Amino acid sequence: xxxxxxxxxxxxxxxxxxxxxxxxxxxxxxxxxxxxxxxxxxxxxxxxxxxxxxxxxxxxxxxxxxxxxxxxxxxxxxxxxxxxxxxxxxxxxxxxxxxxxxxxxxxxxxxxxxxxxxxxxx
Length: 122
Prior knowledge:
This protein has six helices and no strands. It has helices at residues 4-24, 30-41, 45-49, 55-64, 76-96, 102-120.
């Protein structure tokens, strides 16, 4: 059996490249998706996206596209784009988790979270 680090790195790359393909039809990146989803949720965007490189550039691009207004909310065109992309990202997530029970998914995420917390204490 290969170690968790191998599978983590492999999965990360597979998730990134697969999501890039889903979003590429609209010339978007994962950061664009994160920004749209964060704005739609009403969460403070600066705080939610601060750990991610390129997030501010993605938000600026969404403004240029007319999807984000001056107050930082989604415009009608932005809401349409978000709903359209949410459907596609939902299909992507379903494909990525096919055959995995909700309990197994929660256990896996919990284990990864615990490992990250353990290492953050160093």
